[in-house]
Design brief:
- The complex is a heterodimer of chains A (259) and B (839).
- Chain A is α/β, with parallel strands linked by helices.
- In chain A, strands 6-7-8-3-9-10 form a 6-stranded mixed beta sheet, with helices on both faces. Chain A has a 4-stranded antiparallel beta sheet with strand order 2-1-4-5.
- Chain A contains 10 helices and 10 strands.
- In chain B, strands 15, 16, 17, 18, 19, 20, 21, 22, 23 and 24 form a 10-stranded mixed beta sheet that branches. In chain B, strands 4, 5, 6, 7, 8, 9, 10 and 11 form an 8-stranded mixed beta sheet that branches.
- In chain B, 57% of the residues lie in helices and 16% in strands.
- Chain B is of the alpha+beta class and 839 residues long.
- The two termini of chain B are 25 Å apart.
- Classes of the chains: A alpha/beta (259), B alpha+beta (839).
- Chains A and B meet through helix 3 and helix 5 of A and helix 14, helix 21 and helix 25 of B.
Chain lengths: 259, 839
């Protein structure tokens, strides 16, 4: 029984979008209070993340790009507006339902510390399935593991892997539960450029060959160039977007925004 | 550097509170023991003074051993005639005189005596004042102390029964008396009778227990005492006021000191357990601060400064804990009283005395324990390399290292050897033996704590097998419990100590119970036994005999005799009846009636070369020596716990006191058990203080007494277990903090709050189970050692209370779950985003 079916019965539901949308935000506002001043981290963001596409969210530090991702992924709550994953409105979900959403519908890749040190590579990859007390889809798991190329390291522990290998395991874990969308927060931020390129290539293939949806937060134009679309944030608003971005076009955009 | 230390302490108040809690509990216990002891000493001190009152000199019978014969009445007149003596008044008393209430219930107390005494008419010599009515003057009339009278509804002018050694008699209450200034009888019930009545009822006709003497004003005490002493017969002594006070206080103090030392022993256990917890907390906290310490080292702090900073932190924690412990101790003082009340052994009211000595001990102990605990972690902190500041992760705990394990094993071996020497070695004095046993067990505990990380990982993963059924949260909990064996081992060590002691007590208790059952089954032929806390009324025995339903009736009384230079215990009874009632394992001769015969235990007979038929010279407390014939040699020492048995007929003329402490009877042929039961039930109405029980009930009564003792011991040890559980909670809370990011990640990828709580709780349960298994294992070995070392006559079999131990394991596992409640809650409430970005 999926969470999706429960929720759609409760939600009066928006009209179905023309092209399939994996996740979306409508007039998303997020404010923080620090002392007396109010910071608007998100200031009315409306964006759709198309299913089967690789989207990069870009912007300078403090632009709200991580906040947007956290809110869409159900890790953080909006002040107003709405976000949805796979058509399910997140603001209506309880903590328990949010947890199940993260477990079953969403995959995560963080910048660092993605793996549980006491678990083996294999156990880390199947962790969300295990938490759901479900049996892993063995065929899919084999596909993912083969794609990651870590078949000979399944019994190793994270501290026996290199930084790049660890991030590959993290991507594999995100893929393993066949989520509606994978959120990656600066996944190559801690890696050298060659290892970073490996991870990005791998994510690209996940979209192209496995039909996955990936939303990646980054400030690196080279990383953004792997995406199908780049969305630019500044001061909590979407200021621009590029389709089929290249490193050069992204850099030019950033320079233009800086002015 | 001090400023930094202070800031660190200030910034970590909660952590500090958790760390101090263990010390606070330990110090509280020390303080409350001392405060209670001081209070009791003080109230018994003033009681001593009120007992002695204005008496200048007391004449008492004396003997080099055993109970002396009472004084002859005529000595009173002789002493009164001495120059300088103002008055000399005879005095008799008995510790078991029960006034009976209007509704027919004899008064009882839990422990304190019910003292009946002759009324002393001279206010200078009496500690009593009549506050209502008049003093008892002649015939069957009496006075009762004001509290006993008020609490039990006694009214002047009414007639009440009085249960005496010579049966119950009716007397009129003519007066209400007050003892000293405020009638502080410490729970005792005091009644006064006219001299002749008291002498008659207490078996003192023509005799006194003592003579109270007052001096004329201006008389020279030394000269008068010398004059009095010169007229005293042999086996009599005159004791002056100062000596009386000292004697009274010394008697009380001996009891208080034993009580106090037991309490301090438990406090010691609590503090010992605390050491593990504090050391553990410091180690974890410093581990978490490795980067900070490394940064300090990198910018130029010397290892010595880092170490000193840590020790200063420990010092501050110790001072705070001692302060709180002193307050807690004052509170616990009342808690202890409530506990003794609940156990049916009320302590007398006493003032709350906080002596400077108590404060000093509290601070020295509190600060000392904390700083000793911090020594190891501080040394390790000082060794942090500056480079660690730049490294990402330094959390790579070693599973175990050989040197540590070998050291632990060696320390443990030394402890076991010392313990074995303490149990089986030839040691003079119980104090030395206890000290050796204590250090032996401390070394064993420390050694095991050192070496146990080596077994922590395999044991935990074995324990984890059933937990895996609980899914990912379960198997993660096992991995977390096993990931830092050293931490798990030292967290479990505190629980181990508490459980080892509880288990030892349980094994010894169970073995004693089992031994009693076996002895009853194999050596007791008597149908009924009465072993009350008060002496058995001789009238009861006469009534039993008169009923005609019992054929062997034997009371048992105790005193001392001397043979040559050896003073030995002697039991007076009916030897012929004893032969019918018990199987003493006769090696030679027979237990017979008749005078001047003695039965001797085999060991004693062998030592002196006595055989049946020998005549041996026996000296009695009265000083007379008579020749007695060895009539039997017996081998069992379980029931007859003295080496010499003589007939009652030889007793009365030779010993000053006739007190039957217990008795056994058998049902006569032709009388059914039902008739016997009914007869005894009817007698129990008249003599409620000394019920006869059949073997089954008697065994259950004794086993019940052992169980209450075990409850008392274990209630004290529960303190150590509580401290241990606090330690588990503390360690776990710190571990949760340490693993914040990891928990955040688990939550992000879909671990529910419930799964998170379960993961932490099962980790705690596994650590607790690990500790209990070690502790119970050690406790079984300790218990075996103690049982083996105890004399055969006391414990003859080794028995393990399997079900109780099983319950103990389950309770500890559950307690572990409970200890994890707070850390588990904290972990499940972590904000996922904050946790992921936690540095």
């Amino acid at each position: 029984m999926s969470l999706l079916t429960i929720e759609t019965t409760e939600t009066p539901s928006a009209p179905a979008p023309a092209s399939p949308v994996a996740a979306s935000a409508r007039n998303a506002v997020k404010t923080y209070r620090t002392g007396n001043s109010e910071v608007r981290a998100l200031d009315g963001v409306t964006v759709d993340f198309t299913a089967g596409a690789f989207t990069a969210i870009m912007g300078p530090s403090g632009s709200g790009k991580s906040t947007l991702m956290h809110c869409v992924a159900g890790l953080d709550q909006l002040t107003s507006g709405s976000v949805a994953v796979g058509g399910v409105e997140l603001s209506d979900l309880s903590e328990k339902q949010l947890t199940r959403l993260r477990r079953d519908e969403v995959g995560f890749v963080f910048q660092a510390f993605n793996l549980i040190p006491t678990l083996t590579v294999e156990e880390n990859i199947t962790l969300p399935t295990a938490l759901a007390n479900a049996k892993p889809d063995v065929a899919w798991l084999d596909t993912v593991i083969a794609a990651v190329g870590l078949g000979d390291r399944l019994k190793h522990r994270p501290d026996e892997l290199s930084g790049g290998q660890r991030q590959r395991v993290a991507v594999a874990r995100a893929l393993a539960s066949q989520p509606k969308v994978i959120f990656a927060d600066e996944p190559t931020g801690n890696l050298d450029s060659r290892t970073g390129a490996e991870i990005l290539n791998f994510m690209r293939r996940a979209v192209d060959e496995m039909g996955q949806t990936i939303v990646m937060v980054t400030h690196d134009p080279i990383a953004a160039a792997y995406a199908d679309r780049a969305v630019f944030l500044a001061d909590g608003r979407i200021v621009d977007e590029l389709h089929a971005p290249t490193a050069d076009s992204v850099i030019n955009h950033m320079i233009a925004m800086g002015d | 550097m001090l400023k930094l230390t202070l800031r660190t302490v200030n910034a970590n108040k909660i952590r500090l509170a958790l760390t101090t809690f263990a010390v606070v509990l330990g110090v509280s216990f020390v303080v409350s023991s001392l405060v209670l002891g001081d209070g009791l000493r003080s109230s018994f001190g003033s009681l001593s003074e009120e007992i002695v009152g204005g008496t200048d000199l007391v004449i008492e019978p004396s003997s080099e051993f055993g109970t002396p014969q009472p004084l002859e009445e005529n000595l009173e007149t002789t002493v009164e005639g001495i120059d300088g003596v103002a008055n000399a008044v005879g005095f008799v008393e008995n510790d078991n005189i029960q006034p009976v209430t209007a509704d027919g219930t004899p008064l009882t107390t839990f422990g304190p005596p019910l003292i009946g005494m002759s009324w002393v008419d001279d206010p200078a010599l009496s500690s009593f004042t009549i506050v209502e009515g008049r003093a008892p003057a002649s015939g069957y009339e009496f006075a009762l102390d004001q509290d006993a009278a008020r609490d039990n509804g006694f009214e002047v002018g009414s007639t009440y029964g009085i249960v005496t050694p010579n049966g119950e008699v009716d007397m009129e209450l003519v007066g209400i008396s007050r003892f000293g200034e405020s009638n502080s009888t410490l729970g005792a019930i005091l009644s006064q009778y006219p001299m002749e009545t008291a002498q008659e009822l207490f078996n003192r006709t023509g005799q006194y227990d003592s003579i109270l003497v007052s001096y004329e004003s201006g008389a020279d005490p030394t000269a008068v005492q010398a004059a009095v002493s010169s007229v005293l017969p042999a086996q009599t002594e005159a004791i002056d006021q100062a000596q009386l006070l000292d004697n009274a206080k010394a008697d009380f103090n001996e009891g208080i000191n034993i009580f106090n030392n037991i309490l301090l022993g438990f406090a010691g256990v609590a503090l010992f357990v605390s050491i593990f917890i504090i050391a553990n907390t410091f180690a974890i906290v410093l581990g978490q601060r490795t980067k900070e310490l490394a940064l300090l080292r990198a910018i130029g702090a010397s290892p010595k400064q880092v170490r000193r900073s840590t020790m200063t932190e420990a010092f501050i924690v110790g001072v705070v804990a001692s302060g709180l412990g002193i307050l807690g101790g004052l509170g616990l003082n009342y808690g202890l009283r409530a506990m003794f009340d609940a156990l049916g052994a009320s302590l007398p009211d006493s003032p709350l005395i906080l002596a400077p000595r108590t404060l000093i001990v509290a601070v020295v102990v509190g600060v000392g324990v904390t700083m000793v605990s911090a020594l190891g972690p501080a040394r390790k902190a000082a060794k942090v390399a500056p480079i660690a500041a730049m490294q990402d992760s330094v959390d790579a705990p070693k599973a175990s290292d050989l040197r540590r394990n070998l050291t632990g094993a060696a320390v443990m071996a030394a402890g076991v050897l010392l313990g074995a020497f303490g149990l089986f070695g030839q040691i003079e004095g119980s104090g030395a033996r206890i000290a050796i046993l204590g250090s032996g067990s401390v070394l064993t505990f420390v050694g095991l704590a050192f070496a146990s990380p080596a077994v922590a990982a395999p044991v935990i993963s074995a324990l984890g097998l059933p937990v895996r059924v609980l899914g990912t949260a379960g198997s993660l909990s096992t991995q977390n419990a096993g990931r830092n064996p050293r931490r798990t081992a030292s967290t479990a060590a505190s629980l181990m100590v508490g459980l080892a002691l509880v288990t030892t007590a349980l094994v010894v208790g169970e073995s004693i119970k089992q031994s009693i059952s076996e002895t009853l089954a194999s050596e007791v032929k008597a149908d009924y036994i009465s072993a009350p806390e008060v002496p058995i009324n001789p009238m009861l025995l006469e009534d039993l005999e008169a009923s005609g339903h019992f054929d062997a009736i034997a009371p048992y009384r105790y005193d001392q005799i001397r043979i040559g230079d050896d003073v030995d215990g002697v039991i007076g009874t009916d030897l012929e009846a004893t032969d019918d009632l018990f199987d003493l394992g006769l090696a030679a001769g027979a237990l017979t009636a008749g005078s001047d015969v003695v039965a001797i235990h085999e060991d004693e007979a062998t030592e002196h070369g006595y055989v049946v038929g020998d005549s041996i010279p026996v000296t009695f407390p009265s000083g007379t020596t008579e020749s007695m014939t060895v009539s039997a040699i017996f081998t069992s020492s379980t029931i007859m716990d003295e080496s010499y048995l003589i007939n009652m007929s030889d007793w009365d003329s030779r010993f000053g006191e006739v007190v039957n402490w217990w008795a056994a009877v058998s049902v006569a042929d032709g009388t059914s058990i039902d008739v016997a039961d009914a007869t005894l039930a009817e007698l129990a109405q008249r003599y409620p203080q000394a019920p006869f029980e059949n073997q089954t009930d008697f065994r259950e009564t004794i086993q019940g007494q052992i169980d209450s003792l075990l409850v008392a011991i274990n209630a004290m040890l529960v303190l150590a277990i509580i401290i241990a559980l606090v330690g588990i909670a503390n360690t776990l809370a710190l571990s949760v903090f340490e693993r914040t990011r990891e928990i955040g990640l688990l939550r992000a990828v879909g671990m529910s709050r419930r799964q998170t709580r379960r993961m932490i709780r099962w980790e705690a349960a596994q650590v607790a189970l690990f500790g209990s298994i070690l502790g119970i294992g050690l406790g079984l070995i300790f218990g075996w050692g103690v049982v083996t070392a105890l004399p055969e006559s006391f414990v003859s079999t080794l028995a393990f209370p399997v079900s109780r131990i099983a319950i103990l394991v389950v309770v500890c596992g559950l307690a572990g779950l409970l200890a994890a409640a707070f850390p588990a809650r904290r972990a499940s409430k972590l904000d996922v985003l904050d946790a992921i970005s936690h540095a």
